[in-house]
Amino acid sequence: MFAGMPERIHRGCGSLSIDILIAGVGGQGTVLASRLLAAAAIDEGYFVRTSETIGMAQRGGCVVSHIRIDSKEASPVIPWGKADILIGFEPSEAARNIYRLSEEGSCIVNTKEIKPVTASLGTVSYDIDAVNKYISANSKKAVFIDGYSLAQKAGSVKALNIVLLGATAAESLLPFGKSSIEKAIKDNVNPKFMDMNIKAFNYGFDYIKSICK
Amino acid sequence: MVKRLLMGNEAIALGAIHAGVNVVAGYPGTPSTEVLETISEINKGEIYVEWSVNEKAAMEVAAGAAIAGARALVTMKQVGLNVASDPLMSLSYIGVKGGMVVLVADDPGPFSSQTEQDTRHFAHFSNLPVFDPSSPEEAFEMIQHAFEISEEVELPVLFRPTTRICHSCSTVEIPEERMKHEPDGFVKDPKWVIFPSLSYKKHIHIEKLQKVLSEKFSGFKYNSLSGSGKKGIAASGIAYSYAREMLSGFEEEYKLLKIATPYPFPEKLGLEFLKGLDEVLVLEELDPVMEEALIELSYASGGKQCIKGKKTGDLPFAGEYSFELVKSSINRFMGRQELPKEKNTVPDLPVRPPVLCAGCPHRSAFYAVKKALSKQKAVFTGDIGCYTLGNAKPLEMVDTCLCMGAGVTMAQGLHRVEPDVKHIAFIGDSTFFHTGIVGVINAVYNNTDITVVILDNSTTAMTGHQPHPGTGKTAMKSVSEKIDIYGLLTACGVKHVAKANPLNQSEAVETIKQAVDFKGPSAVIFEAPCIALFKPAKKYKIKSTCINCMRCIREIGCPAISVNNGKVEIEPSLCYGCGLCSQVCPKESIGGVEA
Fold this sequence. Notes:
Chain A contains 8 helices and 6 strands; from the N terminus they run βαβββαβααβαααα.
């Protein structure tokens, strides 16, 4: 077991069941992040199920990925209040989906908000402080990370998803370590962008380690 | 044996390949698209794969292959089957020789569809068996059986996953060996020609087959019965997965019937389930197909079971089912109390409806038409594709949307009632080939004064960029003749056809004005590629001369532009350099820089 990992309910076959929810906005690379986590878990011998938003809602709409590790007898969707980890690619999307997070759950949130066109048109409000407070009040542990800037520093804001995976690995909540996810990145991501992605992954990892000493 | 994470649609594709499929045809449509896409991607050339012009064409291509003894797969979404229902209905009478699977993905929710129609009714309507997988790993195996059963009864079979099966992933074990199917070719026989006298005989034959299939399905390994007690739960598809997760640990308290073949209903298995039961709860998405089958079975066997489901108001007809919905309905059914959930005060969260991408040429096209017609009464009919999103604020340029191709023809009906109003029909390039051409011919034939605007972005964008007849590329990755939209319109007899670049506003506005002023049917082709097809050459920035008038925000609704701390900003990672904002800006305060 990794340090800091709470006791988990076992789903049948004796291994460790972990449910991870990723919430973001269409175009942020949530699907790739979920595939990489799944690939790492399968490599470690787990049965994984995922569920994703694909299609019309992708066009700047809300997207959610469910990743269920050790889920042979389960459905692909995380029930309300059962997610162990919520990775919020965008604050309001983290808040929107926090009802799926367990009372013991942790939340990793990218701080940069994406204002929908409706917010810019002034028809709806977006109070970022209220959103952040709500996230903290509804998770056992919430860490906020400026993933956008870290990704930019690594070479492209498109690497935000990889930064957040690094942050997740640093939280030590997964039934496998940093190297497993790094391997999944190496196995699945375009070699052309490998250096940048590994950099992005480490920036996310190191940032969380630095604030959680 | 390899273990891989497969999306439901990928599992179906691999299952078909493992069954030795020879010919695959389809038309893109969420949530079905990735089935054909996956086969096209991994095909080494031994399988013939095509994106057909529409679902009817795809169904007929597959039917032709199947009567020549090939194993054939045809793929579409549920509303696609409406288009292909003509060949399907007759094909159930004619039958097939090689196995033929008609993959139709249903969309409870709906997430990306016009309707929540239930394809299982089409199975009943056409007297064809239907398979309803409950997980990707099951779909991988089940489609292989579907091909076998199709060959055995010489009928096409329907395979109906739902969005949650299509787009969820599972760890699937994929065996190395694949079946090889060699088609033995078409053999001439009067049985392939549908005539009334033959139809009568065939009707008798297929009705008999329903009994044979029902009997067979009672022993089908994916239909199962477990548990004991006076209460029974019948479930199918994703609802079965939710029920199984919820009920694990309580297996002894109830009987559980899992149904993977909702039509023909496995009656023998159903009767065994009903035996000794007082109450039944039926869990299925969309329509009460299983519920009705069980009611009928209970009545016919003199049963007294109380069957609860949609018809009794215990479960909803509309929308996707969730774990929570299934759980609370089971708890009510089993007489268990549910603790009320504490309510949290959620802060106001911004609504995030899907929008046209930053840089999307459709935004510029809509804006140009809006400007060109700002002083006239006009109705804008829309169609199916990304451009349906043009109905959102602030563009508000899509007044109607019905089904594929309907914009062009509905504009004509509208015009007959209000001839003094301008009627402009927007249609995408792929949709134009799908069912738009007929509408154009109809307008020319009947001389209806409408303007058709073809939004040609050189791809089928909404479903993930599939090629179509205008792109000159095929699913076999070969190059083919590009069908020329301009030439087609001219050949159809449209007397005023013009092309314009929608990103150039003054040119686009002028072109639309001329087309609308033309008496008789006219057409404008707006040519600009979907942003997914190229890298931006330019990015736009707000200059210091910006007076924060917000005109760019108010007028075009680009997701890259937002107001932060009272100032207008363009998010550089989202800007795609279309330049519409700079053409809208009254102060020339938005400038392009090389990306």
